Each structure stands twice: as C-alpha cells, then as structure tokens.
From TrEMBL:
Protein name per its UniProtKB record: Anaphase-promoting complex subunit 5
Keyword Repeat: yes
Annotated keywords: Cell cycle, Cell division, Cytoplasm, Cytoskeleton, Mitosis, Nucleus, Phosphoprotein, Repeat, TPR repeat, Ubl conjugation pathway
Subcellular location: Cytoplasm, Cytoskeleton, Spindle; Nucleus
GN (gene name): anapc5
C-alpha cells in the first residue's frame, strides 16, 4: 500500500521551491568565472548575426550560469559549446585577450562593458542587468592590489582551461596565486562589521574547483544551490547530489557561515537519506537553534517569531524519532509539541500534531481509527484540505486492512480525488492512484490494478516543472512500477520484468530512500522464478536478502524452500513463527498464506483429512476480508483435498466455481494448476463411470443368460441391478433397456 504520510514532514525552508534565507551575510564579489560570464553576455550583445535557436538556448543558459556555483573554465566552455559552438570561440578570444596582455586590458573590458547595453531596457530592469551592475560595483570597490590579484587569478583560470604555456610561466603564475594573500572578498565597505571584514579579508579567493579547499559561496549562489537541492530531494532524488558530495558542499557553506539555518535543514534532509540518526538530529537541532536566534525579535507565542519555530522544532523532532522507530521518544516529543501549540492557540500546528499522533499509533500497531476520524473532522473544520485528505487516505488504508468492501473504499477515494483536482494537489492525486492500485491488487483484481498503475505512470504533473524535474521519482511512482513488475512476473513475462526493474534502478538508485521497494520486489520475483524452475540452490541466497529487507517475508520464503526440500519439521517451526509475527502485526494476507502452507505440510505428513479445518478457517478469513485471490487459492486447495479423499464430484464443483476468476485475474501458474485440477477431477469421474458401465454390461448379460436357462428369479434379480445402475449413469451413456 502507498505510504500516505510521506508528505507530512514539515519543511519550513521551502516556499514554492524558494529557500527563505535572510541571515546570509556574504555579498557578491568578482571572480574569474564571473568575468567569463560577463564576457559571454558582452559577446551575446555585440554579436548581431546569430541564429534564433542558438540565442534562445543561450538565453535559457544565462540564469543558471549566474546563479549557480562557479565552474571551471573547461566546464564553462563545454556548457556554452552545447548551446552555441560559435560563441565559444568569441568568449575564449575575449578572455585570452585579457589574460595574455596587461592589466589595463581587463580594466578596459570593465570600462566598455556598460556601453554594450546602454540602449537596452533589459540592462535596467532584468536579472541579467542587475547581475552586471552588481559585478561592476564590486569591481569598482576593489583596491589596486585586489585588482591585480584578480588579474593574476584570471590568468591562472584561463591556463587551467587547456592553453599551452611555458613551464616558467606556469611556475610564476602558480607562485603568484599561492603566495599572495587573496583579499578579493573584501570590498572596503566601511559600514561592515570589523570582525566580518577581517574574516573576509583573510579568506581565500573563491575559485570553486580550482583548489581542493573551496571558498565561500555568495548569498545568491547559496540560495540557488539550497533551493535546487531541496526541490530535487523532494521530487527527484536521483537528480540530486549524492549524499556524501552534498554533505561536503553543505559543510563548505557552514564553514564560512555556521549560522546559515537553511543549510542545517538541508543537511538534516540529506542525513535522512542514509539513515544517519546522529547527523540528522544534530542538524535539525542546529537549524531551529539558528532560526530561533535569528527571529528573536518576534512575538514569543504568536504566528511569527521564535515561538512558532519552537513548536515546529519539537514536531520535527517527533517525526525524526518516528522514522527511526523510537516510538517512546516520538510520543514524548509529540506531547510537548501539542502542549506548546495549545498554549499558543496554533490550530494548524495542532492538526499536524494530531496527524502524526494517529500515524504513530499505526506504527505501533494500535487501532487509530478514532484518532484519524477526529483529525479529518478538525482539518475540515479549519479548512485544511491537505491534512483532511491525508486522513481520509489513511482511513481507506486501514479499512482495506480490516476487510471493508472495495466499493466503499473506492467511493471514499473518489470523493477526495474531486477535492485534489479542484485544489491541484498533484502529490495527493499520485498517492490516491497508487493506493487504488494496491487495493485492487490486494483484493485479487490484477487487471484493475494494472490499469490504475498505468494511469498513474501516464499522468502529467500539475506541479510547475523546475530544474528539469518531471515529478516521476516519488514513492507512488515506485509503488506503481513495482506492481507492474510483479504482475508481469505472474504472467511469465520476465523480459518485461527485466526492463521495468532496470528502469527502477535508474530512477531510484540504491542510495535513495525508495530503493527498498524495488529491491524487495526484485528479490521476490527472482525467488519465485527459481522455485518454479526447481533450482532450489539458487533460491537460497534470495531468502537471506529478502530477510534483510523484510523479516516476515524472508521467514515465509525460507519455510517455502524448506518444504520444497522435504524438511517438513523445520518448515513447520518457521511457519509458526511467521504466524505469530503476522498476528501481532495484523497481516491478514500473510496469516492466510501461512495456513495454506501448513495445510500443504499436512498433506505430506498426517493426511488430507487433517488439512480440512485449516483450509476452512483460511477460507472464512479470506471471505471476511474480501481477499478474492486468496479465497480462490484456498478453494483450489479444498478441491484438491476432496479429490484426494475420494470425492471428485464435490471437488469438480468447487473448481468450476472459481475457475472464471482464476482465469481472469490469476497468474499463469494459478491458471495451470486450476486447469490441471479440473482435468484430474474429470478424469477420476470418467474412470468411475467406466467401472459402473462395465458392471452394467455384466448384469445385462447375466439376465440374458438366466432368461435363456429359464431361471426366472435370478433373471429378475440381475435385471433389477442392471436397471439401478442404468439410472445412475448420465443420459448420454445410458444403455437402451433390452427386451427380454
């Protein structure tokens, strides 16, 4: 089933995909990379004959170039070349002209730069114009020594771009860069804090990848970087930086500005990807410490100020403990958050707390229906459609596990879907479709499950597409693809299964948080294939791997393997353990499967009659919870048991009752077993009818013999037996009554 509470994690740093960073104190400064960007802008403005498509691609490239982190010269040229190869040569000539000659050539470039845009309205109002004016202002504030060091760093930057210089020149340039103190981050602003100015004056020149020790990012670069990575972590984790690399970048930001609260929060999200409880807790606490300190001038208990931050700090701490299974600590943190929210009369925070309260009860295995219903009512009362819809989806999930009929559950989901489309809540639409597919599959309607999964995969996102994200790497999409992989495997289409799993591996690499879903599905598919092929030695490693991801599933597969190897006593013990775990977690599907496996063990050991009570109990449980697939499988087990007990007529009747359902929604193996069982029942009945017909012919011949001999009494006796047998046979096989 789809997890309906993944989106409940409060993310205070995200507002329409923009990081709210208001405490970053580092200003923009001129770097060799930014000079390269300015050279690109200058050439774009002065180069008139340019193809429309090339200009359009360059215009789309400008904003990421000026907002992103500094690139190496090779990376910059490669990026520009992908958009317009002709522009690369012009930019290289412009930069090499400055680097090869004197300092005055760089001065001349900054002097003529505004003239290329003097007649352009964009220079006054656009983001590009603002960027150029900021660079000009920062350059004009540099001292002569700083300008000279900037010029030397530009030479070093262009050298790393691949130009062949003499060894002496390389050594002189390298010595100049490494021995001189780079002070370009200071712009001689006398109004700045003296300590901050000293720190910036003694800091290294920001050259991104030119050195192993990176300098600080500017405010805009840091905001853009955090906004991009936070958005990717939420919508397409595969496109975000790898956890280790992202943590290095965040550590670099925090090294120069440890009070940057949003960087701490992104560090918390990044640590959750790798389940690092120490760093995630550390980063979360630091985030709210910085946020509370920066907002101390606000009201202590109102909607603004550190009072609100404190409430959500405790709530986020509770969600952190929930994720790691620390239920007692999560409960204490939730109670504290509820107390603070009640004191502040914060109804929104209280609703978030109530949502997490019933989620926590579900995680602990307790009945949370009443709490969930209360949460839905209160969310609707305070006009919080998002939380209300999450509550309804949670109720649907609980109803499915408790055996509610499919029509009631789907009616409830249809009502929420109408609200989702009205409010454009695409995330909840995805969850609803994935949940519907899961419900249909649980109820044994594989065709409907396949349809819902395909509908989700072919949907267009309602979210604004930022950073190239297509909104297709969230948990609902992973669940839908896993359903499709397992459904194709059930039909024996292993080529399609391989393609789906390959796609899942690309979209959800092993380090991502939803990779566990496809890993478990892939292992179960490979295990079933090995068991069906009779390669039990290949199935054994999959049991260990499945157990690492899901203990109950692993134990059940181990019991199946032991049963196939005729180790019935060990298999019976493991099945008993699985039964206890399933009853504790209220996993009805697994309970029924354990009953069926135990009945199969009875077939091989104590006889077919001892399996009947278990099968009848499993049948009652499947019908109570509307699990049609398991109900059909149980009936087939009952039919086989009756066949072995010598009741082929009743066995055939049972098979014919479920044959249509199995052929419509069952796996290839289930269909084959049902058809084989039907054939065995019909063959047994045919053999029985042939024996009766042979006896009938004998009585007929005896009656003819006694009639010819004149034994009237014996003749009548044989004729009566013949008549009784003739009436028992079907009309098509009846013999004509002879005239004696």
């Amino acid at each position: 089933m789809a997890s309906v509470h993944e989106s409940l994690y409060f993310n205070p740093m995200m507002t329409n995909g923009v990081v709210q960073a208001n405490i970053f104190g580092i200003k923009d400064w001129v770097t060799p990379y930014k000079i390269a960007v300015l050279a690109l802008l200058y050439e774009m403005a002065t180069t008139k004959p340019m193809a429309l498509l090339d200009r359009r691609r360059l215009n789309k490239l400008i904003l990421p170039l000026q907002q992103g982190s500094d690139l190496t010269f090779e990376q910059f040229l490669k990026t520009v070349e992908e958009c317009c190869p002709l522009m690369v040569d012009a930019v290289k000539r412009r930069l090499f002209l400055m680097a090869d000659r004197e300092l005055q050539d760089m001065e001349h470039f900054f002097a003529i730069l505004p003239s290329a845009f003097s007649d352009s309205e964009a220079f006054k109002t656009s983001v590009v114009g603002l960027f150029m004016r900021q660079m000009l202002l920062a350059y004009n504030k540099l001292s002569f020594s700083q300008v000279y060091k900037l010029y030397r760093s530009l030479q070093q930057y262009s050298q790393r771009g691949g130009r062949a210089l003499s060894q002496d020149q390389r050594q002189r340039d390298h010595s100049a860069v490494t021995t001189e103190d780079m002070e370009l981050t200071s712009n001689e602003d006398t109004s700045a804090d003296p300590m901050e100015k000293d720190e910036l004056d003694t800091g290294p020149l920001h050259q991104s990848d030119l050195r192993s020790t990176r300098g600080p990012l500017s405010q805009k670069q840091a905001e853009y970087f955090l906004a991009r990575q936070a958005y990717l972590l939420k919508n397409d984790e595969n496109k975000a930086m790898k956890p280790a690399k992202l943590q290095d970048e965040l550590n670099n930001i925090l090294k120069f500005n440890p009070d940057f609260a949003e960087a701490h929060y992104l560090s918390y999200l990044n640590s959750m990807r790798v389940q690092d409880i120490y760093i995630s807790t550390h980063s979360l606490l630091h985030y709210f410490d910085r946020l509370i300190l920066s907002g101390g001038e606000g009201k202590s208990s109102g909607d603004e100020g550190y009072g609100r931050s404190l409430r959500y700090a405790v709530l986020n701490l509770a969600t952190l403990h929930c994720r790691f299974g620390h239920y007692q600590q999560a409960d204490l943190a939730l109670q504290e958050a509820i107390r603070i929210a009640q004191e502040a009369n914060d109804h929104v925070c209280l609703q978030h707390c109530l949502s997490w309260l019933y989620t926590l009860e579900q995680m602990k295995g307790s009945d949370s229906v009443v709490l969930t219903e209360d949460s839905v009512k209160m969310a609707a009362h305070f006009c919080l459609p998002y939380l209300a819809s999450l509550g309804i989806q949670s109720l649907v999930q609980q109803g499915a596990l408790h055996g509610m009929s499919a029509n009631k559950l789907l009616d409830a989901l249809r009502g929420t879907d109408i609200m989702h489309w009205k409010q454009s809540l695409s995330e909840l639409i995805d969850i609803s479709l994935a949940q519907t597919a899961s419900i249909w599959r649980m109820y044994g309607k594989s065709t409907m499950a396949r349809q819902q999964a395909q509908l989700l995969l072919n949907m267009n996102s309602l979210e604004p597409v930022n950073f190239g994200v297509q909104q297709n790497n969230t948990e609902p999409f992973a669940i839908a693809l896993c359903h499709l992989a397992e459904l194709h495997a059930e039909q024996g289409l292993y080529g399609a299964v391989s393609d789906i799993i390959k796609h899942l591996k690309q979209q959800f690499p092993p380090h991502t948080q939803h990779a566990k879903l496809w890993m478990l599905s892939d292992l179960k598919i490979q295990f079933e294939k090995a068991m069906n092929d009779g390669r039990y030695h290949l199935a054994e490693p999959y049991v260990t791997a499945i157990s690492a991801l899901n203990t109950t599933e692993g134990l059940y597969r181990k019991a199946q393997l032991l049963k196939a190897l005729n180790q019935t006593s060990e298999a019976s013990k493991i099945l008993q353990r699985v039964q206890n775990l399933s009853e504790k977690s209220k996993n009805t599907e697994m309970i029924i499967r354990v009953m069926l496996a135990t009945a199969e063990l009875h077939w091989d050991s104590s006889g077919f009659a001892t399996a009947l009570p278990l099968l009848l109990q499993a049948l009652a449980l499947a019908r109570q919870h509307n699990l049609q697939s398991l109900e059909s499988e149980t009936i087939l087990h009952l039919a086989f048991t009756q066949l072995m007990l010598g009741i082929p007529e009743q066995a055939l009747a049972l098979v014919q009752d479920v044959l249509e359902c199995v052929l419509a929604h069952g796996s290839v193996l289930d269909k084959a077993r049902a058809l084989l069982l039907t054939a065995r029942c019909q063959a047994t009945l045919a053999v029985s009818n042939m024996n009766i017909k042979k006896s009938e012919e004998v009585y007929y011949l005896q009656a003819r013999l006694h009639h010819s001999l004149g034994n009237i009494q014996e003749r009548n006796k044989s004729a009566l037996l013949f008549r009784l047998l003739n009436q028992e046979l079907p009309p098509a096989t009846n013999m004509a009554v002879p005239q004696l």
